[in-house]
């Protein structure tokens, strides 16, 4: 097994590491980790990973380096490991940081950029991936890194990752908001907090599982529970009157636009640093 190094040990990195361990009988001896947080390093050590003292040490001792820090910390992490990271396959989970900017900072183009979402923490996430042609021979290793995290969506163009961000990257927040609305309705109708939350979550889980198993489109499934003049019909009529579908499209378009803006801003910061 190739040595995999993580620069950063936050929630996403921890989810990936747990997935890798699950594929390898709970072992973590092939995983190297560095984080500025002593608490996170202690947690990684307790899991059995090799905790290192710097980003430079991670890059020196790893064939694959996962950049798992926030975008504002990325440049410093790369600078600290520049001597060795040039020889590694680099996987970035830093939101909004484009391959061309990673190439400029790292000094090579064997790179895979990813856009995961938070349900990957329980193995039910979605992760969008885009790699340079130079990283294609390493696809099987990249898949292994993310295999236990949920569904993998390979993008043929890097800009498709902005769409992944709008749909699945930020998507859990939309679903959580809907669960909030169902829960609040339950409270207004006299149910206690536990009951309201149970109904809301079970409704979303059951509906998603039905959509997954049935083979029918969401629109067909919706029509099957909507009798004209019935209760569901009246609820959906309110949603339609208030342009629910258009509102959701506008929300996702705003998310995608912001993803592009953040990428542009990071690119400008890289260019400014090079001058």
Any key phrases for this structure?
alpha/beta; 8-stranded mixed β-sheet; 2 domains; Rossmann fold; ProC C-terminal domain-like fold; 58% helix; 275 residues; 13% strand
Present the secondary structure layout.
Layout: E1 4-7, H1 11-23, E2 31-34, H2 38-47, E3 50-51, H3 55-60, E4 64-67, H4 71-85, E5 89-92, H5 99-106, E6 111-115, E7 125-131, H6 139-146, E8 150-154, H7 160-169, H8 171-188, H9 193-214, H10 218-224, H11 231-241, H12 244-274
Parallel strand pairs: 1-2, 1-4, 2-3, 4-5, 5-6, 7-8
Antiparallel strand pairs: 6-7
Instruction: Outline the low-pLDDT stretches.
Output: none
Name the CATH architecture of the largest domain. Answer: 3-Layer(aba) Sandwich
Q: How many runs of DSSP E, i.e. beta strands?
A: 8
* Number of self-contained structural domains: 2
Q: Work out the helix count.
A: 12
Give the strand order of the largest sheet, numbering strands 1, 2, ... along the chain. Answer: 3-2-1-4-5-6-7-8
Q: How much helix is in the residues?
A: 55-70%
Report the structural category: alpha/beta
Approximate shape:
globular
The CATH topology of the largest domain is given as: Rossmann fold
Q: Compute the CA-based radius of gyration.
A: 22 Å
Q: Bin the strand percentage.
A: 5-15%
- What is the terminal-to-terminal distance? 41 Å
How many strands, what sense, and barrel or not for the largest sheet? Answer: 8 strands, mixed
- Mean pLDDT score, rounded? 93
CATH first level of the largest domain: Alpha Beta
**Quaternary status of these chains?**
single chain
Order of helices and strands: EHEHEHEHEHEEHEHHHHHH
By CATH's scheme, which homologous superfamily of the largest domain applies? NAD(P)-binding Rossmann-like Domain
């Amino acid at each position: 097994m190739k040595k995999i190094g993580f620069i950063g040990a936050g929630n996403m990195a921890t989810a990936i590491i747990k997935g890798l361990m699950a594929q390898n009988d709970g072992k973590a001896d092939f995983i190297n980790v560095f984080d500025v947080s002593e608490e996170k390093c202690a947690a990684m050590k307790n899991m059995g990973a090799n905790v290192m003292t710097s980003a430079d040490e991670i890059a020196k001792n790893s064939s694959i380096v996962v950049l798992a820090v926030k975008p504002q910390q990325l440049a410093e992490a790369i600078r600290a490991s520049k001597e060795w990271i040039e020889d590694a396959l680099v996987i970035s989970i830093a939101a909004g940081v484009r391959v061309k900017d990673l190439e400029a900072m790292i000094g090579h183009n064997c790179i895979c950029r990813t856009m995961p979402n938070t349900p990957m923490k329980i193995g039910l996430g979605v992760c969008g991936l885009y790699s340079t042609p130079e990283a294609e021979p390493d696809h099987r290793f990249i898949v292994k890194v993310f295999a236990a995290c949920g569904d993998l969506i390979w993008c043929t163009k890097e800009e498709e990752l902005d769409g992944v961000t709008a749909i699945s990257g930020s998507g859990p927040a939309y679903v959580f908001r809907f669960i909030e609305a169902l829960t609040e309705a339950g409270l207004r109708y006299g149910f206690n907090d536990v009951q309201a939350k149970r109904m809301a979550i079970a409704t979303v889980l059951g509906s998603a599982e039905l959509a997954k198993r049935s083979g029918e489109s969401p629109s067909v499934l919706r029509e099957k529970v909507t009798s004209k003049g019935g209760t569901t019909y009246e609820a959906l009529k309110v949603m339609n009157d208030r342009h629910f579908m258009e509102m959701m499209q506008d929300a996702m378009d705003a998310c995608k636009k912001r993803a592009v803006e953040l990428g542009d801003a990071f690119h400008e910061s890289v260019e400014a640093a090079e001058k």
